[in-house]
Automatic annotation (TrEMBL):
It comes from Acidipila rosea. It is an enzyme of class 1 (oxidoreductase). One of its GO terms (biological process) is UDP-glucuronate biosynthetic process. This is UDP-glucose 6-dehydrogenase. Pathway: Nucleotide-sugar biosynthesis; UDP-alpha-D-glucuronate biosynthesis; UDP-alpha-D-glucuronate from UDP-alpha-D-glucose: step 1/1. Keywords: NAD, Oxidoreductase.
Length: 454
């Protein structure tokens, strides 16, 4: 199948590379010239496991990049839209990029195409795409619009794409369903796993292929993200209760999660969810519900608990260090989660910003996110306010406390005696519960974590 993917960001680039891996001919389109230059040279502009290897495998063969939507429309049967849908000032999703791409497609369409929205969008966006196509001169006989929400996570994006639990498509006609079935067939009939299997054995059970109408598919995406965010906030609320009464959130998670109806995933208490999706999508879904006349105030509580979790953590830092002005603090982790260099809406960045504003001197280390974090922090608190270190032990030299803010594996296996010897005071405040309290106490640390007695 000839496919184009418009918007070569976290979702679009992974999708383009993985569609090529599934045997399709793919044009990745972006309007950022620097990104295109890097991609044409085989350089992946983001940190994502396995993406460089797959890009190398397909670039110049089944996969090419272009800045031209007209070229992409001409050369492909199916056009995926994967541009950003950021939060607008009103809390709604800003659909300006989706609209701009739709208008551009409408201008160039001359034969039958399937347009697929893969960006996360509010319900009824596919109707708006249809309307916009026609308004901009495209004949309704020349296109169909379908929804195919994406569920990949950053940090495991390639394997999430190639080994999904489910593929959801929202369609209004059999033409769209047939094309999308064909595109994803190697993941649903198991043939990809027999042929190329990136991780042998991982695709033992083929993906569920779920066909709905477009409105339901759009709602499935918002529902999934809101539900996952709710699980995290729920557990953060439990952690706050456990802390106050001497419970242990790890034990609670195990005890609750053993019930197969609940499960243990997405129940890790911490410093609250971040990233470019959960925060904006929960807010956007809240706005959608309000607009259709339903007061989904459960989502307000999810967002409030999430925000408060940062404050709870800062309160712990104050409890541990008393006053903050001129305190030296090492921060381990700046990315919003492990496995990525993405710092968009990272709780770690928010916490660093708050500590800088209270007069702390911060030295930070993250295995891959330091360049992006530096520019983000530069914008928020000014350049040179935070020093970056080349490893965690250098970051910890002579500090009053270490804060663990991202759950990178390397922070879970630190050389504890070495860390201890570097620090001025042996205080560790762990926002990701990477250690058992008794282990840290035995190593001589004063250890604070989330949802467990200090
Ligand atoms: P991103 O900002 O990383 O990428 C968007 C890309 O689109 C950028 O490279 C930008 O240059 C390009 N672009 C914007 N306007 C364009 C235009 N007119 N023509 C060509 N290219 C254009 O965004 P992302 O994180 O990949 O997210 C994209 C969408 O997917 C969002 O709706 C997001 O909610 C959703 N989503 C994201 C993830 C994730 O993990 N990041 C997962 C699932 C769904
Ligand atoms: C999330 C969803 O997991 C994906 O299915 C979805 O496709 C994507 O959003 C999206 O729509 O963009 P992502 O944001 O990449 O993926 O990463 P997650 O692993 O979901 O983590 C999100 C945030 O929640 C991170 O800050 C993470 O640290 C936090 N988290 C996650 C917790 O605090 N506790 C947990 O148990 C799990």
């Amino acid at each position: 199948m000839n496919i184009s993917v418009i918007g070569a960001g976290y979702v679009g680039l992974v999708s383009a590379v993985c569609f090529a891996e599934l045997g399709h001919t793919v044009i990745g389109v972006d309007n950022n010239p620097e990104k295109l230059l890097a991609l044409d040279e085989g350089k992946v502009p983001i940190h994502e496991n396995l993406l460089p290897e797959l890009l190398q495998r397909h670039l110049g063969h089944r996969l090419t990049f272009s800045s031209s939507i007209s070229h992409a429309v001409r050369e492909s049967d199916v056009i995926f839209i994967t541009v950003g849908t950021p939060q607008s000032a009103t809390g709604h999703a800003d659909l300006g990029y989706v609209e701009a791409v739709t208008r551009e497609i409408a201008k160039h369409i001359t034969s039958m195409k399937l347009i697929v929205e893969k960006s996360t969008v509010p319900v009824r966006t596919s109707d708006a795409i249809r309307r916009t196509m026609t308004l901009n001169g495209a004949s309704p006989r020349l296109f169909s619009v379908a929804s195919n929400p994406e569920f990949l996570r950053e940090g495991s994006a390639v394997t999430d794409f190639l080994y999904p639990d489910r593929i959801v498509i929202g369609v209004e006609d059999s033409f769209s369903e047939e094309r999308l079935r064909e595109i994803y067939s190697p993941l649903c009939d198991g043939s990809y796993y027999r042929r190329e299997d990136l991780i042998p054995g991982c695709g033992a059970s083929a993906a569920h292929f779920i066909v709905t109408n477009t409105n339901s598919a759009e709602l499935i995406k918002h529902t999934s993200n809101a539900f996952l965010a709710m699980k995290i906030s729920f557990m953060n609320a439990i952690a706050n209760i456990a802390e106050r009464v001497g419970g242990d959130v790890d034990q609670i998670r195990e005890g609750v999660g053993a019930d197969r109806r609940i499960g243990t995933s997405f129940l890790n208490a911490g410093i609250g969810y971040g990233g470019s999706c959960f925060p904006k999508d929960v807010l956007a879904f809240r706005a959608v519900a309000r607009e259709v006349g339903y007061d989904f105030d459960l989502l307000d509580a999810v967002m409030r608990i999430n925000k408060d979790q940062r404050h709870q953590f800062l309160r712990k830092v104050r409890d541990a260090l008393w006053t903050l002005r001129d305190k030296r603090i090492a921060v381990f982790g700046l990315a919003f989660k492990a496995g990525t260099d993405d710092v968009r809406e990272s709780p770690a960045i928010e916490i660093v910003e708050a500590l800088v504003n209270e007069g702390c001197l911060i030295t930070a280390y993250d295995p891959v996110a330091m360049p992006r974090a530096l520019s983000e922090l530069g914008l928020r608190v000014g350049e040179n306010t935070v020093r970056m270190a080349s490893d965690p032990y250098i970051a910890a030299e002579d500090v009053d406390a270490v804060l663990i803010l991202t759950e990178w594996n390397e922070f879970a296996s630190l050389d504890l005696p070495r860390l201890h010897s570097q620090m001025r005071l042996p205080v560790v405040i762990d926002g990701r519960n990477l250690y058992r309290p008794e282990v840290m106490e035995a190593a001589g640390f004063v250890y604070y974590s989330v949802g467990r007695a200090a």
